[in-house]
Every structure is written in structure tokens, then in C-alpha cells.
């Protein structure tokens, strides 16, 4: 058997203990023997499901015939998540444009503003953000993600983002932020406010990275991810497929995730939205886009290698057909951005997504926000009120 693969036709009686949830398929009323046997066999395979693949094994997964790769990814997905259930997030740009970073794909970089002509905006007021979060909740989103075009939040931005976290959580939504780099102190402040997820993407491999960004190093990205991880906030870290990178770069990116002490809880796999006026967007518009199948392969490999992570369909869905998105869900994606807009670009329409979910038989997962780490305590002797930070 090829290294790193599950052999679902050869169940092994001496299987490792695992966290397989055998209720997966009865949960949604399927009670389908074929699906239950499929997932049961997967857990009895020769290889433990949750283990780190080495680089060669990741490369072998990418090379599989597509149907073998999809079958394996969907099988692993069902062993760890409720089948046919998807987590849905809504995005809002809370500070748009004129970013000091020079990410070659991004409409919001100040370095490309003369060519993208993107109108920069100031921070959005708290009550407007809350109104957008309420709309997101009413539409069925379980997580509200707020993005800012900053190198990092400044000292004067911190009370603003802390207030947003607290107010959005009070609505019963999970919170996610993506604000650029964070130091340990900032990560702790966000954790104490109860932030559920922080998004900070590696975007690509270490070696292709220099073709993409020059103002923020790969190691700085890894440092921010470490700070988020150590603060107790869930890590959301993904990539962009289709920037002109090679298959090797996509393999290396998956390998980077596995080199982390713990794989990100959430992995957005963006398909490049080629934006006119950005260096990478213009190049891709001139030379042609990568096959969508390669994006689907990347999703499947991320699912297999990070079996307990949410794998998210992120940028790029607006241009995809129903069938391409269905293949992405087959590949083990179980999360997507919902709502007519991402940060500056369009998204697949909400009504279209509702119809697609009905047609595919997908159901929305409920929110489960983290409790804030800080608890108020009263000193019994003095009556003095203070706050304690709870250990994770
Ligand atoms: N400014 C913050 C940062 O970069 O850390 C957060 C916002 S940034 C827009 C979040 C992610 O969106 C990027 O890391 C990139 O992966 C993705 N993204 C941005 N522009 C994109 C595009 N044109 N196509 C696909 N993904 C894109
Ligand atoms: C992520 O990986 N993708 C989202 C989210 N994290 C913040 C952003 C996609 C942005 C797409 C381009 C735009 O709308 O400007
Ligand atoms: Fe700025 Fe983020 Fe865009 Fe890079 S991706 S230019 S950091 S907003």
C-alpha cells in the first residue's frame, strides 16, 4: 500500500484506538449501511487516521487519481465530523485599504492603490459592525469574521477590537479577526476578550513567498501564529491556490501546517481572485488561471493531513459552478464564507448558497463560542473585585 494512504478495502482487526464517531451517518437520518461500513472500515485501516504525513506522503496524495483522493478525503472527513454539516461564517472589512504591506494579490495594499483604484476607508464604527453582525446571525451564520488592512493593530486600535469581540460574542456568535501581525501581549488581550479564532495565513510555501510579499517575512507570519496559539485562541491559517505557485509549493504549504506544534483548527483554502491592478492578479489574468481541480486536490490533501481541522472554501467561490463546489465538499471542505461580499470582492450570493445547500443536502452547524478567559472574582476579606485569567 502506498505510504500515507488509507486502505478502506482491507480492514485490520488490530486497529489503533481512534476517535471515530459512529453516529455520523445516522445523525442526518441516512442510516445508510454502505456509508457506515465505509467509515468503519476507514478506522480499521492499517494506518492511524490522525498522524503526521511526511513531505513525500503529502506529494503522493496530490498525485492520486482524483476519485481515489476524493474518496479517501471524504472517508476521513466522516470519521471526524458530522457528515453533510457545514460551518458558515460571514466576513466584514472593518478597515479597508491603504495597507502598508505589499501582498501581490491584494486589492487593499497601499502599494498597488494607483492601479487598483481601491477607495480606502476609515475604521467602521462599532454600532455599524454590530448591525452587520446581527444581520449575519439572522441569516444563519454562526461566526462573524472581522478583517482590517493593517500591518498590525496599533495601541489605539486595541480597545476598539476588544469592544467588537465582546459585543459580537454577546449576540451568541463565534468571533474571528484578521488584523495583521500580533505580538504576545495583543494576542493575550484578544484572548481575554474571548476571541474564538484569529486568521493569519501563510499564503504559500516558504520558497514561493518571496514572489508574493516583501514587507512581512514568512517567519513573522509563523511568529504571529505562535502567539495566537499560545494565547489560547483557535488558529485559522490557510493559503491561496493559483498565484503561479507550483505543485511543490502547495505540497510545502501543507507540510508547513504539519510542522506546527498543532495544525490550525481552521484552514481557509482561497482560490486566487485575480484583481486587476495587483501584480499577481494582472499576471494571472494575462497568462490564465490554474485548473479548479488543483484547488480541489489541495482541499482534499488538507482534509486528509489535518483530519480534525475545519477546511474552508474561502475566496474564489463566486466564479465556481455548483458542481465544482460540490466536488470541494466531497473533498472534505466543511466551512465557507456566506454573504454577498468577502472583504473587497464579491462572494457567491446568499440565495444561491441556500439553494445549493438544499440541493446538496447540507445543513448549517450551530455556533459554539469560547468563554472569555477572564472571570471576575471577589476577595472574601476585602470585598475587592478583580479579574482572573483562566488556564486553558
Ligand atoms: N490584513 C490581514 C492580513 O493579511 O493578515 C487580513 C486580511 S487579508 C485580506 C486575509 C487573507 O485573504 C490573505 O492572507 C489572503 O490569503 C486572502 N486574500 C486576500 N486577497 C485575496 C485574493 N485576491 N484572492 C484570494 N485570497 C485573497
Ligand atoms: C481568508 O483566508 N480569506 C478571507 C479571510 N481569510 C479574511 C479573505 C478573502 C479576501 C478575498 C479578497 C477580497 O475580498 O478582498
Ligand atoms: Fe494588507 Fe492583508 Fe492585503 Fe496583505 S493581505 S496587503 S496584509 S490587507
Helix/strand layout:
Layout lengths: L23 H4 L5 H11 L11 H9 L2 H15 L4 E11 L17 H4 L9 H13 L4 E6 L9 H13 L3 E5 L5 H10 L3 E3 L6 H4 L8 H14 L2 E3 L2 E3 L5 H13 L6 E6 L7 H9 L4 H14 L4 E4 L8 H9 L4 E3 L12 H11 L2 E2 L9 E5 L6 E5 L3
Parallel strand pairs: 1-2, 1-9, 1-10, 2-3, 3-4, 4-5, 6-7, 7-8, 8-9
Antiparallel strand pairs: 11-12
The protein binds S-adenosylmethionine, 6-(5-methyl-2-OXO-imidazolidin-4-yl)-hexanoic acid and iron/sulfur cluster (SF4).
6-(5-methyl-2-OXO-imidazolidin-4-yl)-hexanoic acid (DTB) binds next to strand 2 and strand 7.
Would you kindly provide a written description of the structure presented here, covering whatever features stand out?
The protein has 392 residues and is α/β, with parallel strands linked by helices. It folds into two domains: 16-80, no CATH class; 85-364, Aldolase class I (TIM Barrel, Alpha-Beta Barrel). 39% of the residues lie in helices and 14% in strands. The protein is built from 15 helices and twelve strands. The protein has helices at residues 24-27, 33-43, 55-63, 66-80, 113-116, 126-138, 158-170, 184-193, 206-209, 218-231, 247-259, 279-287, 292-305, 322-330, 350-360; strands at residues 85-95, 143-148, 174-178, 197-199, 234-236, 239-241, 266-271, 310-313, 335-337, 363-364, 374-378, 385-389. Strands 1, 2, 3, 4, 5, 6, 7, 8, 9 and 10 form a ten-stranded parallel β-sheet that branches. Strands 11-12 form a two-stranded antiparallel ribbon. Strand 3 (174-178), helix 8 (184-193) and strand 4 form a beta-alpha-beta unit. Mean pLDDT is 86; it is low at 1-31 and 40-49. Iron/sulfur cluster binds next to loops.
Amino acid at each position: 500500500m502506498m505510504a500515507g494512504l488509507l486502505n478502506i478495502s482491507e480492514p485490520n482487526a488490530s486497529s489503533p484506538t481512534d476517535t471515530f464517531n459512529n453516529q455520523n451517518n445516522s445523525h442526518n437520518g441516512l442510516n445508510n449501511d454502505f456509508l457506515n461500513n465505509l467509515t468503519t472500515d476507514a478506522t480499521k485501516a492499517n494506518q492511524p487516521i490522525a498522524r503526521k504525513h511526511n513531505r513525500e506522503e503529502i506529494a503522493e496524495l496530490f498525485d492520486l487519481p482524483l476519485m481515489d483522493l476524493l474518496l479517501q478525503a471524504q472517508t476521513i472527513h466522516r470519521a471526524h465530523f458530522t457528515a453533510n454539516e457545514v460551518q458558515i461564517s460571514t466576513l466584514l472589512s472593518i478597515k479597508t485599504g491603504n495597507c502598508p504591506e505589499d501582498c501581490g494579490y491584494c486589492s487593499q495594499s497601499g502599494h498597488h492603490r494607483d492601479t487598483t483604484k481601491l477607495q480606502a476607508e476609515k475604521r467602521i464604527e462599532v454600532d455599524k459592525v454590530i448591525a452587520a453582525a446581527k444581520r449575519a446571525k439572522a441569516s444563519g451564520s454562526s461566526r462573524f469574521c472581522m478583517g482590517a488592512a493593517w500591518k498590525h493593530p496599533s495601541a489605539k486600535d486595541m480597545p476598539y477590537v476588544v469592544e467588537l469581540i465582546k459585543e459580537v460574542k454577546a449576540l451568541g456568535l463565534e468571533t474571528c479577526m484578521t488584523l495583521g501581525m500580533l505580538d504576545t501581549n495583543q494576542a493575550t488581550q484578544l484572548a481575554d476578550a474571548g476571541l474564538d479564532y484569529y486568521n493569519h495565513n501563510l499564503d504559500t510555501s516558504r520558497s514561493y513567498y518571496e514572489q508574493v510579499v516583501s514587507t512581512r517575512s514568512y517567519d513573522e507570519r509563523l511568529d504571529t501564529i505562535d502567539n495566537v496559539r499560545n494565547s489560547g485562541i483557535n488558529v485559522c491559517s490557510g493559503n491561496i491556490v493559483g498565484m503561479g505557485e507550483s505543485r511543490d509549493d502547495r505540497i510545502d504549504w501543507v507540510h508547513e501546517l504539519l510542522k506546527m506544534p498543532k495544525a490550525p483548527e481552521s484552514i481557509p483554502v482561497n482560490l486566487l481572485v485575480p484583481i486587476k491592478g495587483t501584480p499577481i492578479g494582472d499576471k494571472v489574468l494575462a497568462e490564465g488561471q490554474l485548473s479548479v481541480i488543483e484547488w480541489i486536490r489541495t482541499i482534499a490533501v488538507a482534509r486528509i493531513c489535518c483530519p480534525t481541522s475545519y477546511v474552508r472554501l474561502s475566496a474564489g467561490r463566486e466564479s465556481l459552478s455548483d458542481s465544482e463546489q460540490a466536488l470541494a465538499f466531497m473533498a472534505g471542505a466543511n466551512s465557507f464564507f456566506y454573504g454577498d461580499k468577502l472583504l473587497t470582492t464579491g462572494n457567491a450570493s446568499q440565495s444561491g448558497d441556500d439553494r445549493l445547500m438544499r440541493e446538496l443536502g447540507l445543513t448549517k452547524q450551530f455556533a459554539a463560542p469560547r468563554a472569555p478567559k477572564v472571570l471576575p472574582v471577589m476577595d472574601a476579606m476585602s470585598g475587592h473585585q478583580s479579574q482572573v485569567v483562566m488556564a486553558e
